[in-house]
From TrEMBL:
Protein name in UniProt: Tyr recombinase domain-containing protein
UniProt-recorded Gene Ontology molecular function terms: DNA binding
Domain Tyr recombinase: 152-314
Keyword list, A-Z: DNA integration, DNA recombination
Lipid metabolism among keywords: no
UniProt cross-references to Gene3D superfamilies, sorted A to Z: Intergrase catalytic core
One GO term (biological process): DNA integration
Amino acid sequence: MPLKLFKRYQKDGSYVWHYRGAVADDYLRGSTRTANKKDAARVAAAIEHERLNRHLDGPQDSLTFPEAVAHYLKAGKSDKYLDKIEDHWKDTKVKDMTAGAIRQSAVDLYPDAGGATRNRQVITPTQAIINHCAELELCPPIRIRRFKFDAKIKKPVSLEWVTALAANGRPVIKALVLTMFSTACRFSEAHRLEWADIDFQGRTIKIQDTKTGNERFAHMTQPLLVALANLPRDKKPFYWSESQLRRFWDEDVKAAGFERLTFHSCRHGFATKMLRDKVDPKTAASLGGWADIGLFMKTYAHAMEDATLTEGLFGTQTARGEGQVKEKQQVREK
């Protein structure tokens, strides 16, 4: 039974053609968004044709990228970097999105960027969207070759650096640096925190992993508790945009005369500090939310750059110990 058109009148007396009817055992109804009957008939015919094709060929033949994105977001996944990707692909069918075409889209969207940026902001989210729909049996899975890039070692923050920034930064930056260093959460995880996630009495913070969706509860250290308690409660703890918080961060670091380190350096700092405090790797990884101890040790644990540590073989004091005392004194003087 073909779709039938009917008028639906608006409050101002105008009308728009709507359609309704059963196609391939599915009852459809909706607006054609036009008052022109010929145009409305063409819209209804196109909808009927598309639904018949989907019934005959299956969803794999008709799934569009916007529909795939909708499924992805409905599952609670992140929408980070998706605006530019959606604008690029528009209504392209997923079956027509080849691995080569997706790699080329990364070049088109970020012509001056390096391989790491193209991987992070195009390849990874696009592949995640398609493979999520593959798990729903809406399309085949896809594998996309990453761009090569020179991996840069992320320098970890030290306790002295964190303490100094907390002492000199504005309240929100103090709370932010202590949150990320004390719990090893990513910036995106700190940014989405609600006051309901923070239990001052139990001294815990509920953190949702932005990569896996898993939840964990991190202990709230005393300095962090005080910093969060001093933030206003009428909005989220870190309600500012990411760009605003980065600007605040950079301004406070520069004003204090410290070396500029990134948000993610706090996660590296947590891992390094825990291991140097002789916390075993399994416990340190668990406390910081790492499920893969191999990744934790390979990526986040940093060696101490002090050749004189071998003096410890004979029980003598190392130059590093003397340097730490001097560094702490310099921080106090600032």
